[in-house]
Amino acid sequence: MTKPAFSIYDASAGSGKTYTLVKEYLKIILLSKKQDAYRNILAITFTNKAVHEMKSRVVDSLSEFAKDTPSEKALNLMQVIHSETGISLFDIKEKAKSIIKNLIHNYAAFDISTIDKFTHKVIRAFAHDLNLPITFDVSLDTENLLTEAVDAIIAQAGEDETLTNLLVNFTMEKTDDDKSWDVSREIMETGKLILNENNREEISHFNNKSIAEFVEIKNKLVEFCKEIEAETIAQAKEALLLIENNGIDLKSFSAGHFPNHLNKIKEGQFNPNNKTYHEFDDIKINKTAKDGAIIESIIPELLAILKSIYTKFEKKNFYEAFLKNITPLSLMNTLSNKLQQIQKEQNILSIAEFNKLINEQIQNQPAPFIYERLGEKYKHFFIDEFQDTSEMQWQNLIPLIDNALSSEDLNGERGSLMIVGDPKQSIYRWRGGKAEQFIELSKEKNPFVNPSKELFPLGINWRSYDQVIDFNNKFFKFLASKFANEDYKDLYENHSHQEFNDKKGGYVNVSFISKIDKEEVSDEDSLDKNDLYLEATLNTILKVKANGFNYKDIVILTRNKKPGTAIANHLIENGIPIVSSESLLLGASSEVQTCIYILRYLKNANDLESKANFLYYLANNHQTALPIHDFIAKGMELKNELEFQNWLTEIDVDFSFQNIRKKALYEATEIIISKVIPIEKRNAYVQYFLDLILEHDLKKQSGISDFLSYWENNSEKLSIPSPEGNDAVRIMTIHKSKGLEFPVVIFPFAEQNYSQNLGDKIWIAADEEQVGLPKALVSKNKDVENFGEEASKVYNQKKEEDLLDNINVLYVALTRAEEQLYIISGLVSENSKGELPNNMATFFIEFLGNEFKEEQLEYEFGSNEKISKNKEVVSNALTIPQLSETLNPKNIKIAQRESIMWNTKQQKAIEFGNIIHEILAFVKTKNDIDLAITKAIENGLIISSQKEEVLATIYEIVNHKDLTEYFSEEHKVMNEQTIIQKQGNIVKPDRMSISKDKKVYLLDYKTGQHLPKHKTQLENYQKSIEDMGFKVEKKSLIYIGEEIEVLHL
Fold this sequence. Notes:
- The protein is α/β, with parallel strands linked by helices.
- The chain contains 38 helices and 24 strands.
């Protein structure tokens, strides 16, 4: 079967996509005539962990193939490759040997990387064209950059008049709306729009708009709103007049609703959420009304007036919604320019700019030119987790891939593309990854010239036991009915069903926490619902443990960090070992906290809270004489810093606060750790903290104050990498768990209303001629449906997208389980219309259907008996020994001689001679020898162990019987003295010893062979000296090597 140029693998959860990727990759390199075909393959995946897994699987497979007796797993893969390619097992083995040998020597060309790493590589190659400094650093912390830019803009208030007026007016508007006067949050949100590629098209319309132009648009909108208001009032009066002129009694209308509605409009109090009138029958007339016929005759006219009023109100509501967002938008350009300025000043490039830069500057370059710059020509492309690849990243790759698919190399090989993904696991829409992109490609769409394309579904779930697969098949097929969008419905209706593997059994448990009667619960107990979830999670863990599972088999998944933190705290209180990003937070370590407290005290000696906190640590770790609180009280009494410092020396904490303040940030922190943190407590947290400090010291030249303000804003995000192999329950967010699998998954808090994304904004088309902008930004809420038909369509599409994203998150959570899955949800009540609320609990209740009974809180699928066998895990963790000393820079000596640095024997004699030569420059008489040797050691010219040998050689020269006059103490000595000759040339004899009667004894030191030019050089020195009126009495050359040779000339 001929392989298509473009293969799409639709790979649901657990369907072996990494296995498929590795197999296809191996087929290409094994079939190629070249040993280094891997150079022409670019494999892109989403995370560093996935990169490592794919690389190690390729290398492991090749090394197993090359063995005489490969493992069973490798042999099976060889058989599959043999059946699909026709290559014999012997040829696979021989080819694998040569590939692995080549790969080891060219590992850098083994291109399996993340999409960001690849884009970084492209930008580095084009740095000069993009006017970027070649040495730019990449900033991953986009939010910090934004904060810096927002602060810089607000700091400009008072300098720039237009900006100042804008910020003051915005502050006033916010306070008028009873909101916080602080405008930085709204400006920050606008900044996020700039950096989010989902908004790139809309933002392009704002690029050249100044603040003044925005102010003009704003004033225009305010005027429009006033005009519309006046027009609707006039039309309401017109309708009321029509009723009056026809002599209609207002009581003829049922309960007076219709005239009341018109009066509300007339008074400027129209509410679009109240009843509106569109159809003839909407206007109710009392049966007893005598003027019913007259009313009916004017209803069409009244409805026409109301239709016009409603249309105007749609426009007015839209303008008012836009006005709430226009001020932060008007700062978009200012903010964008400030971001660029900060990046330029700090020589950094935000990772958020990567795709935009390539899209704007590089994408349109011819593919061969891009390849030339990269230094590699890719023929085959693999893209893993395609549903997470953003639209812009995909557009940037298309030209390179298109070039590979539509051309052949010298061996007649055509390029190929393989993408693997699952739109049901698309949960990164907020950063550009859209399920729709994969759905379109899996149907008719093909962006390449080469039409060869094929879709391959991976139907079998190799991960889970059949009960788990069966539950997920039924549950997600049921959820398909929730969608109005046909593509989304089809995705779960026809593409979520998975075939079983040979793992029989498994268990799914759906439980609900009981309802809380609001009348019985006081406000103080309103957190009881959370407590019930925490208790249910703990009981589930104990139940699973009793069934024979280890703690490390269990993972608890949460939608966001907040419930994860609550669960972590509850489990710790109950003695359950856990590993979570919260438990691994840098700030969770008391040692790191102590370092921070001391840094705060160093910044401000009056910070008594920090002083008390670090005294608490000292009381626990450095003394036993006093009770903890007495020790703290005694320390707090000492207000004078010098007295406090002296008192600390009593417990062997001796450092000068004043001296530490003068040190660089890293050095100061190192001293704090060496004096305060006991050596056995200098753990991974402390080491990671030191790395962070070093980065700030070197890259940002941060001082204590700068670092502390960074810590205030970021300590919640900084955690150490998770240790593998500990027997502990893992707690993580669903997003973090993507791509992973666990024997037991517990999913508590499964009733959150995910459709309430407060603060979200959407873009609505506007009348450019009237407003001055083609798109307007409004808050995403139900009001958008009242902004007209187009706006309503956009809003409903966004609602569908939200629903898809939330069901996708649920899909990722429930498909992580291998053997057992526990879902803990809450009981919910119907509203007055008999509808259940819009949250996850409703999904589970409706899925259970007739089986669901309010009094039954637990529903089981399968048997909870443990089937899998426990695997023995051998920990290979190495313990790194602690260093008990801090490095004193004064103890570092720089080796200045190649022979010392590299220990080569070839030049040893010459180097030794040169060193002696250099030391003799400091020696005028015998009395200078000891000082010259000390200087040589200090300057790193020699090391202490060479001292005796060097000393012996120098004494041999100075005391040499043929050189007495040269080292006479009665003579004036000039070492390395510069002489300017008449011709302007400069000469520098090694040693001139001048007697009182102007006789000169000239000496020059040499190493290596005797050469005629040495004699010529000495004669040149003699001429220069005699031209100045001196007489050269004697001249000699000394050859310094293994032996000393004196040559008199």
